[in-house]
């Protein structure tokens, strides 16, 4: 079943999270999968296993404990967030399958922009090699409820990366992060979402 793409613009993180939970609780076997594209104000989120020790310094950015997998990450203006609400059973996909497909969608999209990126089986997300070493450009975390997923991925487009220095990104001390703007790719968050969405939708259909 093809995914319905919704462009939400700038949204409040917690309200959107609760909306994803409500959507998942209300869906039935005929509910179409959806991709929600959005952008949030500055916030740190801690996953289910997230440890506060990965919050290194208090810089005034609010922190919220949420129900996705993974450790701590940062969301803020200039970052594209793509929430993937997928019926895994209907799609005949496992969680790891979905993670690999979401990573592949981002990697393929980045390739069209001249950016060579890759995934890592032991550390979900999308990475690339830079002069200073490896850096992460997209983070990924999911929640499964009733055989369906919500949460999704976040791609750094053109944002202030400084708040990442006050955490261990995704629980990895010293992990470098990067963004499209630093690679010479000029995109608004909306434009990035319009470009990425077809790749995500294509990878959510099992072939």
Give your account of this protein's structure.
With 207 residues, this protein is of the alpha/beta class. It has one domain (4-203): BirA Bifunctional Protein, domain 2. It is built from four helices and ten strands. Strands 1, 2, 6, 7, 8, 9 and 10 form a seven-stranded mixed beta sheet that branches. Strands 4-3-5 form a three-stranded mixed beta sheet, with no helix packed on it. The longest helix is centred in the middle third of the chain and has 18 residues, at 95-112. The model has no long low-confidence stretch (mean pLDDT 94).
What labels describe this entry?
single chain, 207 residues, alpha/beta, BirA Bifunctional Protein, domain 2, 7-stranded mixed β-sheet, 3-stranded mixed β-sheet, 10 strands
At the first level of CATH, the class is Alpha Beta
**Helical content, roughly?**
10-25%
Number of H- or I-type helical stretches: 4
SSE series: EHEEEEEHHEEEEH
Shape: globular
Report the end-to-end length measured between terminal Cα atoms.
11 Å
Mean pLDDT reading = 94
Estimated structural class:
alpha/beta
The major β-sheet equals:
7 strands, mixed
Per the CATH scheme, the topology name is BirA Bifunctional Protein, domain 2
CATH architecture: 2-Layer Sandwich
Overall radius of gyration: 16 Å
Summarize the structure in short:
With 207 residues, the protein is of the alpha/beta class. The protein has helices at residues 13-26, 88-91, 95-112, 189-203; strands spanning 4-11, 34-40, 43-46, 63-65, 72-75, 79-87, 126-130, 133-145, 148-156, 176-177.
